[in-house]
Specification:
This protein has 235 residues and is an alpha/beta fold. It contains 7 helices and 7 strands. It has one domain: 3-Layer(aba) Sandwich (Rossmann fold). Strand 2, helix 2 and strand 3 form a beta-alpha-beta unit.
Length: 235
């Protein structure tokens, strides 16, 4: 494909902005969403040649309105990348129903809705890449509500790979380890030290490194489908 166009959910976050930069370096243009960081979004859009659209991913109707707008403009991406995630380090007893619902909505539901919108629109050779934090072989002390959404993502990718694969659409998940910012900033020093101790590389990952893997899957992969690719430094 030439003139690749992307839709990126979560473009102003630590990971999302790194992915945005990598896409721009590879000549990709398109649209990314943001929630509250308007000034940062406008700066990233100007820097990388993307369009920034505000949306609260906790609100399914708001996200559907974004898709309706893109339909009106006949914008059909051949790349979809999901980098949006929220998490709070709370024990089970302190996870409210509202927090559970919001976490599911941002981390998993928004990816589902985007894939559903794109399912019959994407052409052969298009690619969907979701980002997550669990590859189904690990046993990690994650908050229950966050961990549940990671399980949703990996199972959804497996099923979507079978459904969309026959049409030549690739759907995969990149399972990342602790990065040098973003959600990982919530972890205390003890947990960060433990992670580095058990990492084969003895360090946390850089957002740039994670973005390289995501963009490789999005742009250069022609065979892997319905799979979770671990890129976590060897945990």
């Amino acid at each position: 494909m030439s003139e690749r166009r992307a839709l990126l959910l979560g473009g102003t976050g630590h990971l999302g902005s790194a992915v945005l930069a990598q896409l721009a370096e590879r000549g990709v243009s398109g649209v990314f969403t943001y929630h509250s960081q308007k000034e940062r979004a406008e700066a990233l859009a100007a820097q990388h040649g993307f369009r920034a659209l505000p949306v609260d991913l906790r609100d399914a109707a708001a996200l559907s309105s974004v898709f309706a707008l893109l339909d009106q403009e006949e914008f059909v991406p051949d790349l979809f990348i999901h980098c949006a995630a929220i998490s709070r380090l709370l024990p089970l007893s302190e996870i409210s129903l509202t927090l559970w619902q919001q976490t599911v909505a941002v981390n998993a539901q928004s990816a589902f809705l985007a894939c559903q919108w794109l399912g019959n629109r994407m052409k052969k050779g298009s690619s969907i890449v979701l980002s997550g934090a669990l590859d189904r072989t690990q046993s990690l002390p994650l908050p229950v509500h966050f961990a549940a959404t990671q399980g949703m993502l990996s199972a959804m990718v497996m099923a979507l790979g079978h459904e969309l694969g026959p049409r030549g659409v690739f759907v995969n998940l990149v399972s990342l380890g602790m990065l040098d910012g973003g959600v990982a900033n919530q972890l205390d020093e003890r947990r960060r030290t433990d992670y580095q101790h058990f990492s084969a590389l003895r360090r946390v990952g850089e957002a740039r490194e994670a973005a390289q893997v995501i963009c490789w899957l999005a742009l250069e992969n022609h065979y892997i489908n319905g799979k979770t690719l671990a890129a976590n430094g060897g945990i």
